[in-house]
Design brief:
Elements lengths: L1 H18 L6 H11 L19 E4 L8 E5 L7 E2 L2 E9 L5 E9 L1 E5 L6 E5 L14 E7 L4 E5 L7 E3 L15 H16 L2 E2 L7 E4 L9 E5 L6 E2 L10 E6 L5 E7 L3 E5 L6 E5 L16 E7 L4 E4 L4
Antiparallel strand pairs: 1-2, 2-4, 3-4, 4-5, 6-7, 7-8, 8-9, 10-17, 11-14, 12-13, 13-15, 15-16, 17-18, 18-19, 19-20
Length: 313
């Protein structure tokens, strides 16, 4: 009887091994190989490295049972720094193939799968929260089915304050942005050139913001908190460098706020979210982060179609 039980256990083990999920797609392995060897164009460079199998882990991003993949670049030279190591998440598509939905570096990364989508808790470089590198910067992202992307959420402590522009898990190509965003990008380029600087369209940042007017549509920004404009000689005045666009009833976007010299933040704990102008003193405020800076809330005014300082209640 004991031999029969052992034989059954052995059969079950073999069947389990046979049913194990296959490894990562060859295309993904080839892609990662190119990434970790992209600094080896010099003829004197060491032989190309092969991706370690430990870099790849099958995960569940959106609950559809199709294989998704996490790629961890920990221990890969050139892919880690004070802000942590690069992490990639690849979403498996029903028609086949993979789409990148996360490709930035973090100091900590925890993914928890759920029926409707995964939750990701990370810790960014302290500067992402307006502080210093060693200071914690916890952020949480949740998978949004309608957007097909990870969106910022209240962190695990229930805090929804986001200092600076939200950090997008995947860089956006401005060529894919709405025409209204490209129009504002051209304004930034013109302002830069008028001040004696240089800026090209592919050097202009753009991305999504939380819903600021309550219509359920996320907003856009174009530019950056710090000027992208490059100068050989310091300009007499800072050129326009950041524009926030808010969704319009016609489906487009309208420029609602702009700055040549201001730091901003968002609070996503309410709907719609609140945008703030921060008074930054000496780079940071307090000892933790820009969360301690004096802040002025900006609210959507449907009459002027602008983000304006909130009136005292």
């Amino acid at each position: 009887m004991r031999r029969m039980i052992l034989a059954l256990v052995g059969c079950c083990a073999i069947l389990t091994m046979g049913a194990a999920s296959p490894g990562p797609p060859k295309w993904l392995v080839d892609h990662v190989r190119e990434e970790i060897n992209d600094d080896r164009s010099d003829p004197g460079s060491p032989p190309p490295r092969e991706p370690s199998p430990r870099m790849f882990k099958r995960v569940d991003i959106n609950g559809d049972k199709i294989a998704d993949w996490k790629v961890d670049f920990q221990n890969e030279a050139g892919w880690c720094g004070t802000g942590g190591c690069r992490i990639e998440l690849w979403l498996g598509r029903p028609q086949g193939g993979l789409t990148p939905v996360w490709e930035i570096g973090v100091r900590e990364f925890r993914l928890k799968s759920g029926k409707t989508g995964a939750t990701v808790d990370v810790d960014f470089h302290g500067s992402a929260c307006g502080g210093a590198g060693v200071q914690p910067c916890p952020r949480r992202y949740v998978w949004d089915i309608s957007e097909g992307a990870f969106l910022p959420a209240l962190n695990k402590k229930g805090d929804g304050f986001l200092a600076g522009l939200p950090i997008a898990p995947v860089d956006l190509n401005i060529a894919d942005a709405p025409e209204a965003v490209k129009t504002q990008a051209n304004r930034l380029i013109a302002a830069c050139e008028a001040s004696g600087g240089k800026l090209q369209m592919d050097g202009v940042e753009a991305g999504r913001l939380p819903d600021l007017n309550g219509d359920g549509v996320r907003e856009w920004y174009v530019g950056a908190e710090y000027p992208d404009c490059s100068f050989e000689v310091a300009p007499p005045a800072d050129p326009l460098h950041l524009v926030v666009l808010v969704s319009a009833p016609d489906g487009g976007y309208t420029p609602a706020w702009e700055t040549s010299d201001a730091s901003i933040a968002f609070d996503i704990s309410s709907r719609p979210a609140t945008m703030f102008e921060l008074t930054v003193q000496g780079g940071t405020c307090g000892i933790d982060s820009a969360a301690d800076c004096p802040r002025r809330p900006l609210r959507w005014n449907p009459e002027t179609r602008k983000l304006e300082p909130a009136r005292p209640s």
